[in-house]
Amino acid sequence: MAVFLLSKGSQLQKLSLTTLCIGVGSGLSFAITSLLVREASLELTNLPVLHRAAWVLFSVIGFQCCIMLLYLGLFSRKTLLAMWQRIGLTFRVSVCSFLASLGWFTAMSMQTVAIVKTLGQIEILFSLLISAYFFKEKLARSDHWGLGLVVIAAILVIWA
User: Fold this and answer.
1) Neighbours of 117 (CB within 10 A)
2) 3-state secondary structure of 62
């Protein structure tokens, strides 16, 4: 219900079945990936937790970079050119993404994925606050309700 409220915003339109399937499929893919990341990290028993997470992240990012460069080179060279022209911004976004992923991977190396993903929902709060404060976006009433439900759900999962 929280995801539905957050995805609707102030728009009053029917939920698309295609959008629902893509969202559920993405969630399933992220869940499987998270479990595999944890398992890969746990296999590297001779390293400290941060190093295990970093090696798994290095492998994942390396694979993603190769696939994305190949895809963009074949189908969207304009995007590659645009990224190269804004290399400073591309680098800053990449560093932020790397640090966030390192945090996720380290947490999943230390704790069960369900707990990490549940606590990670705090990113919704940060996203809404940043969009309201920096980008001056008005939050809809449904955003407030959705956020409240996410917080309640996270508390219930942690207590369970």
Assistant:
1) 18
2) helix
Encoded amino acid at 149, one letter: L
* Torsion, CA 8, CA 10, CA 13, CA 18, rounded to 10: -30
Nearest to 94 by CA among 110, 83, 104: 83
Whose structure tokens read 């997470």?
A: 53
Q: Are 144 and 9 in contact (CB under 8 A)?
A: no
What is the distance between the alpha carbons of residues 9 and 107, in angstroms, rounded to a whole number? 31
**Contact criterion met (CB below 8 Å) for 137 and 131:** yes
Query: Residue 89's pLDDT is what?
Result: 95
- Contact criterion met (CB below 8 Å) for 154 and 119: yes
Spatial separation of the C-alpha atoms in residues 95 and 109, rounded to whole Å: 21
113, 118, 115: which is closest to 2 by C-alpha?
A: 118
User: Model-level pTM?
Assistant: 0.80
Query: For residue 17, what are its two tokens?
Result: 């079945």
Tokens encoding 119: 């606590």
Q: What average pLDDT score do residues 111-133 get?
A: 86
Q: What local confidence, expressed as pLDDT, does residue 48 receive?
A: 95
Q: Which amino acid is at 139?
A: L
Distance CA 137, CA 10 (A): 12
